[in-house]
Structure formats: C-alpha cells, structure tokens
Specification:
With about 230 residues, the chain is α/β, with parallel strands linked by helices. Helices cover about 35% and strands about 20% of the residues. It contains nine helices and eight strands. The protein has an eight-stranded parallel beta sheet with strand order 1-8-7-6-5-4-3-2.
Length: about 230
C-alpha cells in the first residue's frame, strides 16, 4: 500500500476553492470536512459546494462527514461527486447498511472514530469498509495539536487489519505535519490528512511532496510494513 496525502480544504481559502485545489495538484485526494454545527461545534459546507468543487478539479474528493444522521445524508455526497465518503460511527444508526449503500452508489466507504472511541468493538465491521479514519484531534476545528495518545490506537487498528488480511486504508486526521507524520506512518497509517501543514506553507504543492517523502521513508522502516 502506497502512502497517500490528502490536503484538507478546511485550511484553504473558501473564497478560492478551485484555485486552492489546483495549488495542491499532485495530492492523492482533496479532503473535504463537512460540519453541521450539531455533531461538532462548527459549520462549514455542504452538498452544493461539493458539487461545485467536483466540477472544478480532477483530484478525487474525500468527504469527511462530521454530521448528525449520516445514514440520511451520506449518499447525497456520493451523488454530488465524492469518490470517498467517511461517516462517524458515533453518529450512524446502521453503519453496515450505510457503508454498503455508499459502496453501491460507486464510492469508497469509510468510517471515522473520535479519539475516545475504541476500535475493538467494531472489528467485525472492518470488512465492510474501504478505509478507517482515526481522528488524532477532537473533530470540529483545524489547526489543533496532534494527540500522541492516539498512536497506540493506530497500531492496534493496523494489527486488526493484518489479522483479517484486509486491503483497508488507515487514515489519520488532525495535527498531521512534518513533526508528526513519521510517527503516524510508523504506527500503521497510510493515508494522511494535512490541513494547515499544507495550506499554511508558502508552496502547498511542495509541502505535499515533502510530507509524502517523510511518510514513505518512515513506512519503509516500519515493522508493520516490513511484515506485509
């Protein structure tokens, strides 16, 4: 599994989203944070903006839904053009049914866990998913400091993925930067969401390349990747 870097437009200029998407050409995905001011205490964007962004860029959209009632709303993001849709297990009424519906509509299905949510109760759900997102900050705002206490959870999740022989991507989101990405990769992550570390840089495209190089180097030395 190769390293993937997903710049988060939460840290971009919302008035210039098409230009900001172009600024990170070479990224694997654009990470789109959808917040409803209910599940998290912030309000960002919704289906119409995703539709417009999907028309404005060739980079696939990775939509992270920090919203209540994702069972109702998530399929609409696939229809809007998202290639990957992540729902929070804490908000989903029927996560297996929802993951299957997202897949049936043609997108990758992903499930997110807040920092206090353990992975172990959801082991049996993993085969239904294309990606699992471990939040390394409390969801709701960009620019937060990375929570080191999430590293053991990333390791345990990688062990479960290996135990079941799954081709499941393991994404981390929150405080990912040049100072933290190598630790995440060493623990088992292979998809990295970076917001301010990319869009706060003088050259966002170069920041993506540099983060990718760091993650690839750490992955090459990681015990989980060597055993793969």
């Amino acid at each position: 599994m190769s390293v993937q870097i997903n710049p988060s437009i939460l840290s971009a200029d919302f008035a210039r989203l098409a230009d900001e998407a172009e600024a990170v050409r070479g990224a694997d995905w654009l990470h789109v944070d959808v917040m409803d001011n209910h599940f998290v205490p912030n309000l960002t964007l919704g289906v119409p903006v995703v539709e417009s962004l999907a028309r404005a860029t060739d980079t696939p959209l990775d939509c992270h839904l920090m919203i209540e009632d994702p069972d109702r709303w998530a399929p609409q993001y696939v229809e809007a053009g998202a290639s990957s849709v992540t729902f929070h297990v804490e908000a989903a009424a029927a996560p297996v049914r929802l993951a299957r519906e997202i897949r049936a509509k043609g997108a990758r299905a992903s499930m997110a866990l807040k920092p206090a949510t353990p992975i172990e109760p959801f082991e049996d759900l993993l085969p239904e998913l294309d990606m699992l997102l471990i939040m390394t900050v409390e969801p709701g705002f960009g620019g937060q400091a990375f929570l080191d206490i999430m590293l053991p959870k990333i390791r345990r999740t990688r062990e479960l993925i290996k135990k079941h022989g799954l081709e499941l991507w393991l994404q981390v989101d929150g405080g990912v930067s040049a100072a933290t990405i190598e630790r995440c990769a060493d623990a088992g992550a292979d998809v990295f969401v970076a917001g301010s570390a990319v869009y706060g840089a003088e050259d966002p495209a170069e920041a993506v390349r540099a983060l990718r190089a760091q993650a690839e180097s750490a992955t090459a030395k990681a015990s989980w990747a060597c055993d793969h």
